[in-house]
């Protein structure tokens, strides 16, 4: 029997991945952990979690990966873990300016705790963990390739994610640990994070409140719909790289770029509202463009959901969840 551990199970990607795995792996044990921190609305996290607890093969612990005691409890309770999907992290780029220690605790110490647990799980087949497109920093060669140098992160968050990749490589080298890093590109969709632009814009539009638009919306992103991401995540989790190298870096995101301005225009159409805009210059930690170069893994990831369709699905969910519509 396979035993899966998913960290950040009440988070955005973690919730969707856990739900998909529970539906597909009915004879396996799926263990979710999440410390339910208040970085954003805890009630949203609880509502996500409530969608998972009806499954009889789901076990949840409110563990903190930066706590050594919590991690000891996890490893002792589930010694036969075979697959780990590590998604727990302190997210956000600008938040690092005011809360740097939360990134060190969760993204650095927490990652070491997770990979140490993986080293001691004798039946472990694969560690699949979230990195980020932010590791590319100010790279101006598009699309981004995993072969590109990543020496100049523009935020503390990006630096911690790059550090995760280096730590994972060291463990792969020393202990032959099979691990794969996923550099996610601007994932969005239902149950999304309230600190992301799509959520913030939608909320402001429905509440007739002003919204902040940086650099006139002239920043471009590889917006990637959550369902497309999860399909690839679940496939990759169950398909570890058995042949050398056991260490992989993969981009996971749409190859198509769209501007923040275009996103806002689509949301205005979907909500039937006109935005009241407060304009700000580009933030020092924001990169002007991200574009996912898929290299050889284009056989693994397929971006099937057009931006307008994905945004419509998000707005429909938002109206149901927050407005009762």
Automatic annotation (TrEMBL):
Residues 5-240 form the NAD-dependent epimerase/dehydratase domain. Pfam families: Epimerase. It comes from the Bacteria. The keyword Ribonucleoprotein does not apply. Keywords: NAD. The keyword NAD applies. InterPro entries: Epimerase_deHydtase (IPR001509), NAD(P)-bd_dom_sf (IPR036291). Signal peptide: none annotated. PANTHER family: EPIMERASE-RELATED. This is dTDP-glucose 4,6-dehydratase. It comes from Holospora curviuscula. The lineage of its organism: Bacteria, Pseudomonadati, Pseudomonadota, Alphaproteobacteria, Holosporales.
